[in-house]
Amino acid sequence: MRVGVPKEVKPSEYRVGLTPAAVGEYVAHGHEVVVESGAGAGMAASDDEYRVAGAEIVDGAVAVFEAADMIVKVKEPQAEEIGRLRPGQILFTYLHLAADRAQTEGLMASGATAIAYETVTDDNGHLPLLAPMSEVAGRLSIQAAAAALQRPNGGRGVLLGGVPGVPPGRVVIIGGGVVGMHAALMAVGLGARVTMLERSVPRMRELDEIFQGRVVTHYSTRESLSEELRSADAVIGAILVPGAAAPKLVTRAMLALMKPHAVLVDVAIDQGGCFETSRPTTHDAPTYDVDGVVHYCVANMPGAVPLTASHALNHATLPLGLTLADRGLDALKADRHGLNGLNVHDGRITHPAVAESLGLPFTAPEAALG
């Protein structure tokens, strides 16, 4: 198979779909890899490194899309990229379709097969291709909150760790999954007072064992959320409903409960956001103010640390990517977890949560693949 790696075009996205090491694995499996010149520059991987790994370097994304049977990316395809897809071509990347009707309809019209990293599952019911970026985003969320809390950046002027004689900042994390846990690790490490809201009692027990009293857990209700918003300096939205749009847990009216210049960090923004007042931002202009509350809603947070993030992502995506290259779509017929990653095929939506979120018809992936 010919595998293509275009340069990411989403603003301030510096990650790359395949690292040179990953390219070497594809080549060792007998595949050809076509890489757009400069695709790895954001993570300090030169064209020469890709050549040494066995890739062919071409100028421009058009040449990559025309040559490849499978496109491997990081972020969802932008409009110009969707226009380059063709029937029968495989797109393997993050998609987050539930909050993006335009992208979904574009992929359907393209006739391509779109496999989403974020809905591939494993035997434990986890999302192994999403997990590494959730870990990165969770840790970055605290760095982002700490920076946004600085007064020159519009925040309250609070140091999360405090100093002797001055209390530390208060961090509230909504959701105790991968993002929430890694956000808590960073916040605790900085010395902040951390509270987590979660609805799974078994998960709260796990978190209590992990943090040994350094994090307070509360069962998440509207009452407990409102109470925590009143005391928070920073709130991290870490909600995920696999494949579906995130629920709006913090309404605009609730912002009135918060301290002036407190910070909201919405890690769920790729799925539409879990705060009613969230809208996607970029690393170039990451924050905005609503009713005196600072919002940080960057839709590709791990893109700020592309060296770490690209390697972590490739470690997770390489096994399924190689299997797709080796066997094509037959690989999904033999792998129910990979099949869960199938979101669009031959003009049809093949993931139930995506179809439900957008109010569009659903076709079972088994039926779509025949």
What's the layout of helices and strands?
Layout: E1 2-5, H1 20-28, E2 32-36, H2 47-53, E3 56-58, H3 61-67, E4 70-72, H4 79-82, E5 90-93, H5 101-110, E6 113-116, H6 131-148, E7 170-174, H7 178-190, E8 193-198, H8 201-211, E9 215-219, H9 222-231, E10 234-237, E11 263-266, E12 287-290, E13 293-296, H10 306-327, H11 330-333, H12 336-339, E14 342-345, E15 348-349, H13 352-358, H14 365-369
Parallel strand pairs: 1-2, 1-4, 2-3, 4-5, 5-6, 7-8, 7-10, 8-9, 10-11, 11-13
Antiparallel strand pairs: 6-14, 12-13, 14-15
Gyration radius from CA atoms, angstroms: 21 Å
- The level 1 CATH classification of the largest domain is Alpha Beta
> Can you tell me the CATH architecture of the largest domain?
3-Layer(aba) Sandwich
The largest pleated sheet is described as: 8 strands, mixed
Count of separate DSSP helical elements = 14
The CATH superfamily name of the largest domain is NAD(P)-binding Rossmann-like Domain
Our count of domains comes out at 2
Strand content: 15-25%
Number of strands: 15
Q: Name the average pLDDT.
A: 96
Find the CATH topology of the largest domain.
Answer: Rossmann fold
Structural class: alpha/beta
Broad shape? globular
Terminal CA distance:
21 Å
Helix content: 25-40%
Q: What's the multimeric state?
A: single chain
